[in-house]
Design goal:
alpha+beta
Amino acid sequence: MLWRQHTVYRDRAGGVVIRGEHVQRWISLAPSGRKDEILLRAGRILDGGTTAPARSETVVPLRAGTGELATACRRLLAETAADAAPPAPAAPGRAKRRSGKPKRPGRKGKRMSLASWTVLACVVGVVALYVYGTATTGTR
C-alpha cells in the first residue's frame, strides 16, 4: 500500500527516499558512515514540488528492530510537521498578477544562443591563428 500513496526512489548518495505528496513531507534512509547504523532525515515538500532541506535527522542502529525504526521515523515526521509554519498572508492589494499566457512546455535539450556560438567561433579562430602562426614561424 505504501507505493500507492507515496513515491519511493533512490537518491544520488544511494539512500532511499519516501515522498508523501499528500502530507507534503519526505523522509530518507541512508548509510550513516559508521558500521551498523542508518541515518534518518526528514523534511518538507515545498509548493512547487521541490524538497526543502532536512529539518531533523537522527542515527538509528541497525540492530534495533523495525518497531524502533518506525518509531524514529514517526518522531522525525512529527517534528517536521510541527516545525512547518503556516504561510504568511499576502499584503492587501499586492496580489500576484499572472499573465493570461499559458506556460510553454519545456524543451528536451538546451540550445545555444547566437552570442554563445559567436564567442565559441572567436575562441576557435584565435586558437587556429595561434596554431597556424606557430607552425609557420617554427617557434616552440
